[in-house]
Amino acid sequence: MPNSTLYAFVLSFLAGISTLIGALVIFFDKHKNNKIIEVSLSFAAGVMVCVSLIDLLPNSFSMILKEGKMFPRFMLTLIFLVIGIIISMLIDKYLPSNDEEKGNKGLYKIGIISMVAIIMHNIPEGIATFITSSNNLKLGLTLSLAIALHNIPEGISIAVPIYHSTNNKFKAIFYALISGMSEVLGSILAYLFLAPFINDYIMAALYAIIAGIMIHISIYELIPGAYKQSTLKGVLKYVIIGFLVMIISHMLMK
Questions:
Q1: Which of 205, 201, 218, 225 is nearest to 82 (CA)?
Q2: Where are the alpha helices (DSSP H) in the chain?
C-alpha cells in the first residue's frame, strides 16, 4: 500500500474517531441535567445547519454543471436538497419506536435519527477525505481537521439523547463510535470500489442530499427536542453559538 493511501486512511480514521470526543460529555453529566440536553441538541443543530449552508450546499452548487447557467445549477441543487429532506422525513416516519422513548420525550429517537443522518453524511465525507488526501496530503490534512472539529458536536448530538433515554453509557458511546467509523467505511469503499467512478456530479448530488437531511433533522428533531427542556431564547442562543463556532473553524482552516 503506497504511503499516500496509508496516510489517507489514517486521516480518515482520526477525523471519524473525533466523534467520540463529543460523546465523552456524558461522563460529566452524572446527574443527567436537562441543561446538557438543551445545550448539546441546540449546539449540534447550529453546527449541522451551518455545515449545510456554508459547506455542503455551496460545494454542491459549485460542482454541479460547472459550465452550465446559474438557474439550472440552482434548480438542480434545490431538487437534491428537497430529496434529502424527503429522505429524512421517511426515516423519521418509518424508524421503529423504542419503548423507552415515551418516558423520555422522544430523546432515544432523536439520538437514533441523528446517528443515521450522520452516518449518511460521514460515508461520502470519508470518500472525499480519502480521495483528497491520496492526491494532496496537505489539503487532506486541512480537510480532516475541519471534519474532526464538526464531528465533535455530532458525537454530542448522538450520545447525550441516547444516554438520557436509556441510562446506558456503553450504548451511547457505541452509537457515537458507529457514526464516527462510517467515515472510515467511506474511505474503504473509495479505495476498493468507488474512486474510479466518483465524479463532481455525484459528489454534488450527495452534498445537497446530505444538506437536506441535516437541515430537516436540525429543525424538526434537534431544536424541538432542546425546546422541550428550555425556552426558545435559550435554544436560539446555543444554536447561534454552534453556528458561529463552525464559521470560525472554517475561517481558521483557510
A1: 205
A2: 3-17, 19-23, 34-51, 57-63, 70-94, 107-135, 137-166, 169-189, 200-217, 223-227, 232-253
Question: What does the mean pLDDT of the chain come to?
Answer: 81
C-alpha cell at 182: 462510517
CA 18-61-140 angle, 5° bins: 35
| 129 CB-contact burial (10 Å; exposed 0-12 / middle 13-18 / buried 19+) | buried
Alpha-carbon dihedral 122, 124, 129, 131, rounded to 10 degrees? 160
b vs e for 176-207, b when ≥16 Cβ sit within 10 Å of the residue's Cβ?
bbbbbbbbbbbbbbbbeebeeebeeeebbbbb
| Residue 2: φ, ψ to 5° | -60, 150
Give me the pLDDT at residue 26, please.
Answer: 84
Closest CA to 165 of 232, 82, 75, 98: 98
Write down the pTM of the prediction.
0.73
How many C-beta atoms lie closer than 10 Å to residue 242's C-beta? Answer: 29
